[in-house]
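[09:14] KT: can someone run the structure on this one? pasting the chain below
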Amino acid sequence: MSETIYIPTTATKAEKYQAILPQIEALISSETDLYANLANVAAVLKEAFGFFWVGFYLVKGEQLVLGPFQGPVACARIAFGKGVCGTAWKDGKTQLVPDVDAFPGHIACSSASKSEIVVPGFKEDKVWIVLDVDSDKLDDFDQDDVTYLEKLMQLLDESV
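[09:31] RB: done, structure tokens below
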């Protein structure tokens, strides 16, 4: 596949997701390296939506360890159940946080982050990875993000 992703500039958020998901699926289906795929997915999401930070944390033992990302330097390790990412891992559920300062135990890798969504991925019914997306705007994520980012994570789960 070509490394060019078409992102409609005048589309709604849902329309952008609908446009990029099939392209991401094609992109990751033609590459076997996990880290290459994660890096490209993070880049597509950052480019399409201009999010402050987009990246992945992979489960390694009792911690989430930073994987490929786009944005400023981030926390390298997160404990099980800690912060938004650790909570998504522990609960096995998407965490939609309109105001990170109101989330008990939020880990502030950057004070510029204002809202966050974290979506877990599953392998053999266990969380193996989480997608973490931060915005520098309050309440920047909604049900469209939940729906389409969960679909994206299903694509990644199926590719490993």
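[09:33] KT: thanks! Helices lie at 13-29, 34-49, 83-91, 143-159.
[09:34] RB: yep, looked fine to me
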